[in-house]
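Lecture notes, unit on binding sites. The following record was shown on slide 14. It pairs a sequence with 2-aminohexanedioic acid.
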Amino acid sequence: MATMTKTKAGAGKAQAAPIVLKQFIGGKWVDGSTTKEIVSVNPADTRDVVATCRGASREDALKAIDAAAKAFAGWRDTPPPKRGRILAKALEIARSRKEELGRLMTREEGKILSEALGEMEKGMNLIEWFSGEGMRLMGNTAPSELPGNLLYTLRRPLGVVSVITPWNFPWAIPCWKIAPALVSGNCVIFKPASLVPAMAAELVKIFEEAGLPPGVLTLLIGSGSQIGDVLVEDPRIKAVSFTGSNSVGVGVHTIAGRRGIKATCEMGGKNPCVVWEDADLDLALAGVMMGAFGSTGQRCTATSRLLLHESIADKFMEKLLAEVRKIKVGDGLDATVGMGPAVDEEQLKTDLDYIEIAKKEGARLVIGGKRLDQGAFAHGFFVEPTIFDEVGPKMRLWQEEVFGPVLAIARFKTLDEALALANDCPFGLTSAVYARDIAVAMRFVDEMDAGMVHVNSPTIGGEAAVPFGGVKGSGVGEREMAKDGLHFFTEQKTVFLDYTGAPRKSKIY
Ligand code: UN1
């Protein structure tokens, strides 16, 4: 389905012709039936059109759900170790294509190549972890109050589930939702963000090649307004796993709640990093740089609030500004570049809007703050890495997610003050503390209201073997990854097995 041969005339440098993408419905690659074209462009150079696709319609979505519902019984009854082996095969294929897909990711999403390759690894780790779960899809046994009785539980798949994913991790997030859903026996309707359809199609092709039966995994590329509702509201959809904005996530969760189905929604963050007076400042600096400006700040785990102990604040700021000045902004395929573009015009505008808001609210701009649009930047969505100091807790930059390379700084005197500032925010995804004093670090672990806490490490990241997710405005529903991720996509069946062959004597049970 992909063609990447011709050279596009007119653009500044030779560029591959756009990949023409299709929908994957019932095991077949077909055109979407809307006339609306989804176009993905390279955010570092918008003359480079990565892919085009005719968007899926509501009717396409209904057809896809039909096909998935028909495929369910066969997939549910496929022995879990066999399902796991299909994931293992997908892992092998993905590994052989890692470099090529990393480059595609950089072209389509904008993150620098080293980060794209890191994301490839992370997604593969998740597929690997969940492929093994095919052999460990265990229930429990329990002692019964009654003689000659066995109590045990089974884990059963839910049916057809929707997986709705954002643009900022076009490979890893789909992997961490799709892998547990599939290995536990569900059929998945996958709707990626419209900004990254080419990466999504490659992921689905890998699973197709690995041997998934038709209908078990569906790809629907289309706008939320066309197909979003049906993927949550159709009675055959039994669960929704969503990552994206708080407003959409709360909407998804509300509909799911009304329908009485499960939803897990991961919805952003405003993650604090506290640097205590005794911290290893170079270690903290490396963590803040990675957390705040890695992926152009476009991750919900990004370090977006930095809290500095007043005794080290000036010294730390000096080091920080020196590092930020070294960041080379540009096209992520250039190995000397340290930060790529914003993903699109809208995100760029959001970044610039928040910069203006912060200035108006009285925060002190210490570096950056401008769009870069001259020379090599002329065709991309570039913004300078930006830092504001003296940000007050009532300011919007302290409270609202920007999703860009804009870091808000405040200073504190005591741990009480640091914790109060860190917790004064509607989000609670992740957090970090840099301290040598274990009592300080452990009090932060205890009192920070967040789903994840990092000690002497940056706010970003997650690992397949441990749960991922947040509290407050950052998340509702079960955690993702690890056993929790698997449990989300299953329900338990409790079995009461009486092997006495005699009528029950007890009246109690
Ligand atoms: C990470 O920090 O490696 O959208 C993962 C996001 C998160 C994933 C972050 N759901 O940024």
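Take-home: Residues 57-267+474-493 form a domain with the Aldehyde Dehydrogenase; Chain A, domain 1 fold (CATH 3.40.605.10).
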